[in-house]
Amino acid sequence: MSFAVKIETCPQCRSRKTENLVRVEPGCPVRVYVRCSECGAFVARYTLERYTSDKPYESLLKFSRRGGCSIASRSHAQELEGFSKKIETEFKETTEAPFTELKVEEIICELKR
């Protein structure tokens, strides 16, 4: 398998119940802070290249319109549809993959080998 899946675990209380705090700040990449729902401890921070919700097609369409891009052509519409399908496929693969107990840093090192 060319990817690994990890469920975040709180370093303080070992709970797997977490919540994402999404920080959006002008001029900065979107940052997601993961906080333990049980004890409130900091678990992790991720910096996003791109954000996609449960409606990726609509999200990308809105983003493209805001930037002044034209989505009128058939090729652009197919590209947007492919984007949504790719996300759905990756999500399904991710949920079906076995979880690892490795830390994210360890997973990154393993996959670079």
Task: Write up this protein.
The chain has 113 residues and is α+β, with helices and mostly antiparallel strands. The chain has one domain. Helices cover 38% and strands 19% of the residues. The protein is built from three helices and five strands. The strands form two sheets. Strands 2-3-4 form a three-stranded antiparallel beta sheet, with no helix packed on it. A hairpin with a 7-residue loop joins strand 2 and strand 3. Helix 1 crosses helix 2. The model has no long low-confidence stretch (mean pLDDT 80).
Tell me the layout of helices and strands.
Layout: E1 5-6, E2 18-23, E3 31-36, E4 42-47, H1 56-66, H2 74-96, E5 99-100, H3 104-112
Please report the distance between the alpha carbons of the first and last residues: 13 Å
| Assembly form of the protein | single chain
Instruction: Please give the count of helices.
Output: 3
Class from helix and strand fractions: alpha+beta
Runs in which pLDDT lies below 50 for 5 or more consecutive residues are none
Order of helices and strands: EEEEHHEH
Strand content: 15-25%
Strand order of the largest sheet: 2-3-4
Key traits:
113 residues, alpha+beta, three-stranded antiparallel β-sheet, two-stranded parallel sheet, 3 helices
Structure summarized in a few sentences:
With 113 residues, this protein is an alpha+beta fold.
